Amino acid sequence: MNQGRIWCVVKPTVGLPLFLGSVAAISLLVHFAILNNTQWFAAFWGG
């Protein structure tokens, strides 16, 4: 693991939830942007 030393600076109990939360937030933002800027995505979600 190349970045194993990051846990000497940031505790895993803080760093992992922050990392996973940021991934989830970015995913939601991307989906929201696609939903607002295309017609086919809303139709796809609507069935």
- Please identify the structural class as seen in this structure: mainly alpha
Rg of Cα set? 17 Å
Task: Report the sheet-strand fraction.
Answer: under 5%
Q: Any idea what the shape is?
A: rod-shaped
As for the number of domains, it is: 1
The residue ranges in which pLDDT falls below 50 over 5 or more consecutive positions are none
Mean pLDDT: 88
Give the helix level as a range of percent. over 70%
| Number of separate strands | 0
Strand count, sense and closure of the main sheet? none
- Termini gap: 43 Å
Please give the count of helices: 2
- Can you write the helix and strand succession as a string? HH
Structure in words:
- With 47 residues, the chain is an all-alpha fold.
- The protein has one domain (4-46).
- Helices cover 70% and strands 0% of the residues.
- The radius of gyration is 17 Å and the shape is rod-shaped.
Layout: helices, strands, pairs:
Elements (H helix, E strand, L loop, with lengths): L11 H26 L2 H7 L1
What is this entry, summarized?
The protein has 47 residues and is mainly alpha-helical.
What features would you highlight for this structure?
single chain; 47 residues; mainly alpha; 2 helices
